[in-house]
Amino acid sequence: MKAIIITLLAFSLLTACTNHGKKVTSKHIEMFYKDGVTESQAQQAADILYRLDSDGSSESMSKKSFQLLGNGDTITCKMVVNEAKANEVPDQSFIIIGNRISDSAFNGKPVNMVLTDDKFKPLRTIAYAKLSAGEEDNDFGEKITSGNVEVYSLEGVSMDEAEALAKFLEKEMAPQTVISFQLSKEADGVNTVKMASYPEKTKDTPEASVNEIMTKMSQQIFNNTPVSFQFADIRFKPYRTYTYNP
Q: Taking the model in full, what pTM does it have?
């Protein structure tokens, strides 16, 4: 899931730059570094953050500021954040970022993440925890992809249904960037489809459009059984629900 990309959208521009070390950039990512971190390591870290944060939207391309510090056997990565937005993001998302930086730039050395204000003053620290392969997405379900659509299926959902849903959504939506969905089956037989999204970007979605796509899902994928479509946050916690009963 592109949870990391969505998470990074909360980070804001560094406004004061004094004694923060040398700097490298990767497009809109600026990375300050000092205390034993090399230019090559800083550049590799900046490059991986750029790849994680570039989804093609104007919001993702706004400048974001980071700082790497070498502290013996552990690296500290500071990132400037909007504190209110960052408080809504679970630690796991930052642990994932730390793992990506660790693997790409520091040969597996632990990388602690420190969320800061725009002067790199610490607000919150997330200690490094090594993630096993695939662990980033285990809590979302098993993943099926079709183009830029990824569908996570929970227990009780057949892989045929998950694959059919992914292909259907890719055809219907033709997204230019990755969109994440989660499919589950409720005890009463309702097929629940959750879409990871931002409320401000979905608030104007016409209800008629949602009803139309639910009808097609029911008819083409779920053998004319009920469908619940939910707009959800990046952890698939729903904030708006629609239902279709054939």
A: 0.57
